[in-house]
Amino acid sequence: MLRALTLRRSLQSLHHHNHLKPHISTAIPQNPLNPLSPARACSSLSSPSASSSASELRKYLGYTALVLFSAAATYYSFPFPENAKHKKAQIFRYAPLPEELHTVSNWSGTHEVQTRVFHQPETLEELEKVVKDAHEKKTRIRPVGSGLSPNGIGLSRAGMVNLALMDKVLEVDKEKKRVRVQAGIRVQELVDGIKEHGLTLQNFASIREQQIGGILQVGAHGTGAKLPPMDEQVISMKLVTPAKGTIEISKEKDPELFYLARCGLGGLGVVAEVTIQCVERQELVEHTSVSNMEEIKKNHKKLLSENKHVKYLYIPYSDTVVVVTCNPVSKWKGPPKFKPKYSSDEAIQHVRDLYNECLQKCSVVPVKNDVDINELSFTELRDKLLALDPLDKDHVVKVNQAEAEFWRKSEGYRVGWSDEILGFDCGGQQWVSETCFPVGTLSKPSLKDLEYIEDVKQLIEKNKVPAPAPIEQRWTACTKSPMSPASSTKDDDIFSWVGIIMYLPTTDARQRKEITEEFFHYRRLTQVQLWDKYSAYEHWAKIEVPKDKEELASLQARLRKRFPVDAYNKARKELDPSRILSNNKLEKLFPLSDTI
C-alpha cells in the first residue's frame, strides 16, 4: 500500500535471538590456575601414576569435546542473520516485544525506527479522533508521508500518523485552475487525477512518489529561476491541530499562521486538505547538452532568464557540465526536428564495457542470478560499478568519466508532458546534502552560484574525496513562507539549490558504514568552509542533527539567524502544547524549555 515506506512486523522471539545472540568463543583459556586448562592437563602427564594420568587426560578431553559440541549445536540452532557478520557483538538486553511492533525506514535505508503505533485514518473524522485521543493521552503521533526524506524527518519511535488512505481529489475549479485534495494523495496520483481537466502542477521535484502534505511541509522545490518552491502554490490549508481542533487557514484567514504553516515541518498540525493553484497542462521540450565551466560563465545569465526550467549537472574531477533546459513546445514551430547521433543503447555501451573490465580486474565472479547488465538503466549500472569499490577515488573518477561520456552521447531533445519531462532518475539508495542560498536577482545574478560550485570542486580535489556524479544545481524564485530556505521579502530574489551525494550501492553493513563516514566527512568540508560564506542552509528533508553538543548548539544558533524560530515555537505551543506531533529531530532543531 505504501510503495516507499517500509513496514514489517517483527518476528518476535526469533528476531530477538538473531539480533541479540552473543558471540560464543570455544577457546579454552591458557591459565595455569584453571584446572581445565591445557597447561594444567599437560603438567599432569608427568605424574608418577600412569593410570591416573590417562584417566585425567580422558576426563579433560571429554570436557573439551562437550564444550565444542555444545557451541556447535547452539550456533547451528540459532544462526546469525546474513547481515550480522559485520556487526559488533552486543551485551544481551531483554525487552518484551509487542505483537504489533513495526520497523519503519526511509527509502534510502539511512534512518529507521521501531514503533508500536502507526495510524492510517481513512477520513477526516478518523484523523480528528486520532489527534484528539493522542492529545488527551499526551502520546506522540508524528506526521509521516511516503518516507522519502533522506533524513527521515517524519519518523518517530513513539508513534506516527500517515495519510496514505486519505488520497482523494475533492474539488476541481477549472476556471480558477485550482484543486482541493486530501493531503495523503501522491504527486503522480494528483497529476493523473486532474489531467482530464487540462490542469497540472506548476513545478515538480525530481520524483513523483511524495505525498502532497509531505512535499509541502518540507519546502520541496523543482527548478526554474522564475518559479518558486512548491509551498508557494498553496492557496489554503486545513490543519488538524491537537489544541484547537481542525482549522482552515489562507491568505485571508490568519495569514501569519498560514505562511508559517505552509512550510511547517509537520509541527503545527496534521495537514489534512490543501487547495493548490495549478496551471494549464502543457508539453515541454527538454534539451540536454554538454558544456564546460568557461562556457557556462559566459551564458549563465541568459540560461537562467530565457529558460522556464534549467539545471546543471557537474561531474567531479572533470570540467564537464551537463545542461538540461525545459520549455513549452512552440505553438508555431512545434517540437524541434533532431536526429540523435547515438542510440540509447550506443550511449551506454561504454559503461557496460567498463563494468565488465572492472569485473575481470577484480576477479569477481558474477552471481548466477545476477541481472543481465544489458537490461540495466544507466543509473542502475552506475550503482553496480560503484559497488565494486565505492571509496577508491581513482575508481570513482573512472566511473565519473564514463558518466561524462554517457551524457555526451545522450545530447539531444525529448518531448513530453511536464510531469513526464521534469522528473529525474536520482539513482539508488544514497546520502545527500542539499543547500540553498541567495544568488541575486534574475536581472542581476550575483554569480555566487557558480563560485560555490568551483569551491566545492576544489574541496573535492584537494581532499581527494571519492565524490560520485552528479553535483546537481537548480534554481527557484523566492517564497513568502518564512520557514523555507528560499524565503525572502523581496519578490525578485532568486536562490540556488546544490546537492552533493554519495550512493549506498551495497547491502554490506560494514561497507555502508564506511560510505556513511566518508559522506559526512565530505559534507562537513562544505559545511565548515562554504555555508557561512554563502549564507547556505540545508533543505529541511536533508538536514542532519549533529551528535556533538557544541555542534548542535551552533546549529541551533545558526537556524535562529535565518528563520523565525521564536514565532514557530510560539505557534507550536499554541497549537500543540504537548508536542505530540514532534519527534527527536524537531526537538533538537527547535528546543523549548519544557519537554513532553
UniProtKB/TrEMBL annotation:
Source organism: Prunus dulcis (Almond)
Q: Which InterPro entries match?
A: ALO_C, FAD-bd_PCMH, FAD-bd_PCMH-like_sf, FAD-bd_PCMH_sub1, FAD-bd_PCMH_sub2, FAD_lactone_oxidase-like, GL_DH, Oxid_FAD_bind_N
Q: Tell me which GO cellular component terms the UniProt record holds.
A: membrane
Which branch of life, at top level? Answer: Eukaryota
GO MF annotations in UniProt: D-arabinono-1,4-lactone oxidase activity; FAD binding; galactonolactone dehydrogenase activity
What are the UniProt keywords, alphabetically? Oxidoreductase
Q: Does the keyword Oxidoreductase apply?
A: yes
Q: Which Pfam families match?
A: ALO, FAD_binding_4
Protein name, as recorded = FAD-binding PCMH-type domain-containing protein
Where the record annotates domain FAD-binding PCMH-type, the positions are: 110-281
Gene3D superfamilies listed in its UniProt record: 3.30.465.10, Uridine Diphospho-n-acetylenolpyruvylglucosamine Reductase, domain 2
The cofactor required is: FAD
Pathway membership, UniProt: Cofactor biosynthesis; L-ascorbate biosynthesis
Asked if Oxidoreductase is a keyword of the record, the answer is yes
